[in-house]
Amino acid sequence: MKLGFNEATCMKNSTLEQDLELLEKHGYDYIEIRLDMLADYLKNHTLDDLKDFFDTHHLKPYGFNSIENINFCGPVGWKALVDLVSFACQASTVIGGKCLVVVPTMGPTMKDRTTDEVFQDSVDVLRRLSGLVEPYGMRLAFEPIGDPRWCVRTVEEALRIVEEVGRENVGLAIDAFNLFMYSRLADIDSLDQVPGEKVFVLHIDDADDLPLGVLDHSHRTFPGNGVIPLAALVHKLKARGYDDICSLELFNPGYWELAAEDVIRIGADKTRAFL
Description:
Elements: E1 2-6, H1 16-25, E2 30-34, H2 35-41, H3 47-55, E3 60-67, H4 74-95, E4 99-102, H5 115-133, E5 139-142, H6 155-165, E6 170-175, H7 176-183, E7 199-204, E8 206-207, E9 220-221, H8 230-239, E10 245-248, H9 253-256, H10 260-272
Parallel strand pairs: 1-2, 1-10, 2-3, 3-4, 4-5, 5-6, 6-7, 7-10
Antiparallel strand pairs: 8-9
């Protein structure tokens, strides 16, 4: 697998420009670019500047992260969503990076939605988005999140949705922490049912040993520093034929207090143990 970096990891203590230099220095293969950090970068740079960097360095763009709250968004929400998708697609035509992570909706009302409502809305939205990104050669990686606040929580549910969508450019983003938030990966064998070609992104992260309901994204830790069975998860995906990006994604406020280079250096060392 290839060493990747999701910019959420240093989103509060770095910039896209700084991330590029530090990731190159510490041997990362790919970057997942945050769209808000790309917008900030473009205040003083151009997409051509970014293209020049990637053309002359080992580090390459894998894609963009993320389009959130794609379900039940209404006309106003849909327009905002389409604007973000269009921004990512236009950027990809200049710099490359052909994978866009899309995330189901979270909120207090999601628990009131039926399984059938969530399934049908997800299928409809992903088909519409698939049509929008297809002319750009982009892929959509749909990311289930195990916490009850999100409307699609398990690999099984997300895979059923993706299979019903039936588009080659729609697959899954597998995030170790997000899966752990559902049942502490008691359902890890569900990964055995996922076709390797339908895994578009692997996000690697670990978790503090806290009970479900208390565990939140701020409790993500460096790979190997927590209680997620990461080796088993990675081996299962490898057995399914996945050998693409393994991307460090952390939302730990404590790490945002550190120097970005320290986080990126430690993250590379910790992640390489699982590649």
